[in-house]
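Why does residue order matter? Because the sequence determines the fold. Keep that principle in mind as you read this record.
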Amino acid sequence: MSTITDNDLKELKDLINSKFEQFDRKFEQMGSKINQLNEKIDNRYQLLDSKLNDMRVDIATLKEGQNGINKRLDNLDFIARSVIGGIILALFAGFAKMLYPNLFT
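Structure:
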C-alpha cells in the first residue's frame, strides 16, 4: 500500500480546482447563450405584438367601413322602397282614373 504525500494531495486539489473552473466557464457560456436566446425571444415577441396591434387597427378600420356601407345600403333600400311605392300608387291612381274619369275632376 502506498502512502499519500502532501504533494499528491496538492496535485489532486489542483486537478479538482481546474475541473471546477472548467465547469464555471461552461456555465457562464451557457448563461450568456441563454441571455442571447432570451433577447431574441423578447424581440420576436415585441415584433409579433406590434403586428397584432396593427392587425387590430386594420380590423377596426374595416368594421367602421362596413358600418358606413351598411348605412348607405339602408338609405338606398329606403329610397328604392319609396320609389316603388310611388310607382305603385301612381299606377293605382291611373287605373282609378280610367275606371272613374269623373272622380278626380
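The radius of gyration is 44 Å.
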